[in-house]
Amino acid sequence: MKILLLLKTVADSEASIRPTSDGKAVALSDINLILNPYDEYAVEEALQIREKNGDAEITALCYGDEMAIKTLRTALALGVEKGVHIKGQPGFDSLTTAKILAAAIKDMDYDLILCGKQAIDDDSSSVGVMVAELLDIPSVSVAVKLDITDGNVRVTREIEGGHEIVEMKMPCLVSAQKGLNEPRYPSLKGIMAAKKKPIEEKDALAAETQIEVLRVEAPATRSAGKIVGEGEEAVPELVRLLKEEAKVL
Amino acid sequence: MAYKPLDYYRIQDLLTDEEKLIQETVRDFVTENLMPIIQDCNREARFPLELVPKLGKLGFLGTPYPEKYGCADLGAVAYGIINQELERGDSGLRSFVSVQTSLVMYPIFAYGTDKQKDYWLPRLTQGEAIGCFGLTEPDFGSNPGGMLTRAEDKGSHYVLSGNKAWITNGTIADVAIIWAKLDGVVRGFIVETDREGFSTPENKNKFSLRASVTSDLILEDVEIPKENILPGVQKLKGPLSCLTQARYGIAWGCMGAAMAIFDEALQYSLSRIQFDKPIASFQLVQNKLTWMATEITKAQLLNYRLGQLKADDKVTPAQVSMAKRNNVGAALEIARMGRDILGANGISDEYQTFRHMNNLESVNTYEGTYDIHTLVIGHELTGIPAFF
Ligand SMILES: Cc1cc2nc3c(=O)[nH]c(=O)nc-3n(C[C@H](O)[C@H](O)[C@H](O)COP(=O)(O)OP(=O)(O)OC[C@H]3O[C@@H](n4cnc5c(N)ncnc54)[C@H](O)[C@@H]3O)c2cc1C
Asked: Fewer CB near the last or first residue (10 Å), C or N of chain A?
């Protein structure tokens, strides 16, 4: 079985995010960049599928600038065999990103594509399903459980208030939700072995973006909290403030 | 608050991609596995033994040795980084890894037979076996050459007798490297701890390194086979060369503790309000923070350069002494300043500084005290030994 992983480099959720000086993008210099946490579940799932099936071959794709290499090395350190670096600068436009990824995948041999359900930076939750549409293969998003038997993929996905169980034939795409598995740490031997694994470079398809970013703004700074009082006596005043000042009740 | 390590002179930029990923991995491991339990471990004087299989699986034990023993074969800087990140959590966990890697695996690797290496190194790197290093005795600490522990050649086997004191991992060890005199010459012996006559009472009444096991080793006519001697080294060079490896790790490790303390002090000083202002806005507090940050930065640069020298095989034991002495001394001063900045909270175990400060007192003493390293460097500079 051949598994492809779609990985994204994102800013660490601990990092303090600022707009660039022109106010059109997020300033990424001097910020710790990491593998998108939802993609970690995709990587772990691929590794577990290989551990169960023995013969799976896993290739990770990352579209981005040179920071993509670090993201790919992380995946290789975890046990992925091969990386593909699609060179370019992803923007906010999910469709363009999906077109670039689909173009890179089109000529590749694959049975299953795994990705995170969303990237924690732009939260658009759309690239995975768009890639599947462009490749004309079925897809299921927000997976919390995945079983593969004889070319069939049975996926348990999270829906409002419950779970939905669906089945589809390979080749197909699944996007991972938290809870799908418990991602492992790379072992130090794995990190050293990653150095020797191949990363293929590809140019990104030239695709015109259809979205223009007008402005990126930092959220308004929160004003200091207020301690209304302590214990039971504080409750009436708290309720009054929640009603009259915060207007949430 | 999330840990923000100080990197004032951008040491990060000097690291390879692998070193960066190793640093992140160990840091995340400590954040997720040690930080949630360390307060309880410290209160209960309990070493988190449950982490040892994970340390083994992730390859944190015995990183400098070859892949054929299952080790990660990492360079000197990577080993330093691992020590720094572990001690950011607690000196106890770092001590465990130091002892296993530098004091137990190193002598077997450097001075052992192929049979000893093939048997012990894979087990020790996986964490399937735990080791300890018995050099210090109740009456011989800074002066190990006076040791009383004896090995006697009985023809078909050796018999060891004597007492070792203050031995990290003693009670939980499967194997001990025992330094003892055979015909008046210091030799190293591999002693399985389940041998008849070998006992390891633990010292639980410590103010320092509470999350680490410290024990006496009592050897009452312990018989070991002839093949358990380390053939490759004689005299004090044996144990001292092991200590040089471990001290290198300590020089990095204690900075992990110092960085954790600095981070806690900085964040606290920015949020603690007195006289209607964050205490960080007072000049006297800024003076302390500046001193702490400067000492950490100097020590980081010392460590990085020492790592390069070690990687190039150019390092001298006295150079390692300089880093161990300077960095642990600075870390202790940083700890005392950090504790002061935290005010009354500084003596509470809800904050980590006091625990680190207490730990650093042991780190200052073991593997050669601050003053002993002063004499080591003085000896090398002047050619005159001033130990006696
Ligand atoms: C928590 C902990 C764990 C340890 N783990 C191990 C271990 O795993 N294996 C092991 O073998 N040992 C271990 N030790 C022992 C440690 O290495 C010794 O404590 C250390 O070498 C100091 O020896 P000592 O305690 O006998 O002090 P002493 O040698 O008695 O020193 C006491 C004081 O006298 C000073 N002094 C001594 N000689 C001189 C001199 N010539 N000139 C000037 N000043 C001098 C010292 O600097 C110190 O201030 C551990 C110790 C601790 C606290």
From this structure: C
